[in-house]
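Thread title: Can someone regenerate the structure for this chain?

I was given the following input by a collaborator and told the matching structure tokens would be attached. They weren't. Posting the sequence so someone can regenerate them.
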Amino acid sequence: RLSRLEGHKESLILQVSVLTDQVEAQGVKISDLETSLVEHQRKLNSTEEMLQQELLHRTSLENQKLSLMGEVSYLKLKLADMEGKQGNGTERQHKAEGLLKELRILKDKVEHLENQKLQYEKKLKATKVKKKKKENNLSGSFSFGHSWLQAADPDGGQFRRGGLRATAGPRLTRTPEQSFPKCDMNIPFSQWTKEQICGWLEDYGLGQYVSLSRQWVENGQMLLSATPQDFEKEMGMKNPLHRKKLQLALRAFTTKTVEKSAELDHIWVTRWLDDIGLPQYKDQFHEARVDGRMIQYLTVNDLLTLKVTSQLHHLSIKCAIHVLHANKFNPHCLRRRPGEEKQPTPSEVVQWSNHRVMEWLRAVDLAEYAPNLRGSGVHGGLIILEPRFSSETLALLLNIPPQKTLLRRHLATAFSSLVGPQATQEKREYGNATGHIPLTTTAKVKPKKLGFTQFSHLRKRKPDDSADYICPIDTGALTVNGISRLPSAALRGLSPSLVRQAEKQEQPGIKAETNGHKQ
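Best answer:
Regenerated them for you:
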């Protein structure tokens, strides 16, 4: 037993020695791991310092980015101003083209007068020949005849002596302002002379048709009884909008109706396009000579002829015409600059121009996106009167990215406070209605395709049918997607004074109803 225990003891001693060797090896490994841990800790501290430096560098870059964005917005504003100046340059160019046309017309007049001069000279030579024959035949009674040429025509001696001709005075003293006789509005249009009609066409912006009109038109009655086909054939009026402009003016002469829109010429319409945010169509409207009366009777086909195909731009023009109707075509109804009001009402917002909406965006800390509204057609009337125009539509037009949710939420809050709770509720209800089609910035308006059975309806339809007007004459109702809706008093495009008058007119009716209920 003792020898067995000794053997166990030796084996235990061996095991202890082995274990001590293993412990020493593990201690070496632990020391190595501790050194590596210290090294990794040092690397971690260095990476944290580098990260902090990167964060500081990134914040500085973001500050530089904000400053650069501010400079970009400033440059965009300068670019918009330069574009406005360029638009003024195009207007001057159009005026110069108009002056060139007037010069050509004057040249034609001078040639016509030269032809008349030649005819008068021929007649004068013939009369001289006849007079010589009479002098030879009546040589005995010359003194009596001479005393009699003086009594009848005291200036006849000037022609015989080679003085001033009868055609020289009017040809030399005639100016563009005096080229046509003044039109007397007290005289019926049917009794106007050819020269009066030509002068009226020149003043009405249709001076390019004066030369052919002089050859065809005899009096005003001939022009009143003419058809659009006659205008196209006899006057060379190929542009359908020019024919419509002439037809509307002749209808006003026939019905003797005085329209406030007739006081707005085609130059004012180009400035109006700037106000509603559609300056890209000024050339088309100017070439078509679209004036205030044509704006009142614009149709969808007219806008397509003017190359306005965007659905959003159609709605913009429709709401802008509605604002003009509500303000009785006051040429200064749109507001271009911010006033003294702190919180504008919807009846004031509806009169905002495109530039005024951009000023509002700068006031709500969205100045960097404001230049994106130029050429978009956004104005106060579109914001208030169009139920499909929401903050999402405005965010699309401003090119705010969808991932910037906080910025879009800020825009939605500012938009709701701008249009008011009633309009916000109406827009929300309209958006939640069944069959609602959201308003997009890329939708196009296509012309209606007429079938064979619809041509008979076109023949029966009267020229003054208001069903096809883009904004009907009745300003009390708005037609949206074929549905006639009656907006609230704040949304009718009325000016603030008219809204107050409407409220005063409504209050006596309410009092009368309450008194009736009491009785």
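Residues 140-148, 150-179, 454-467, 475-519 have pLDDT under 50 and may be disordered.
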